Amino acid sequence: MKKLFLSLFSMFTIATAIAFTNADPGINEQVQESFKKEFAGAELVKWTTTGDYVKATFILRGYRTEAYFTQKGQLEGSVRTLFYNQLPLAVMTSLDKRFGNADVFDVSEITNSSGTTYRITLESKGKKYLAKVDTAGNLTDIQKLKK
Asked: Domain 83-145 is in which class?
């Protein structure tokens, strides 16, 4: 019984992985080729269309990532989820100076034609914030959020 369960589980896992790595037939070939070129090795790819953009959500080297493409296959930008300790030192130092010993809830790295920025959701002294920081550690925007 145990072998049967393990066999069925293995078959289900393989079938699921194959289903997620196959290209979506609703996404045009230009977008798919651009994606393969930019994000070789991506796994568990899921495609969605939002307005004029095509979004790919996937795992790349262990990180959840989203990439946005035009219908013509032009990569417009990407968003990657990180841990706080993976931020550049300048970013961590800047946040520590401004917010002290804050609790960090979410860290995203945003890369587009303007460069790379970081969006961090954190809580300090009972207040919740969304901070945007550039790679040099400059706080470009701070929004107070409702709890």
From this structure: alpha beta
Could you tell me the fold of the domain covering 2-81?
Nuclear Transport Factor 2; Chain: A, (3.10.450)
pLDDT tens column, 74-95: 999 999 999 999 999 999 999 9
Q: Is the pLDDT of residue 15 over 80?
A: no
Cβ atoms of 23 and 39 closer than 8 Å: no
CA-to-CA separations, 36 to 17, 19, 21, 33, in angstroms, rounded = 17, 16, 11, 5
Q: Give the start-to-end residue ranges of the domains of the chain.
A: 2-81, 83-145
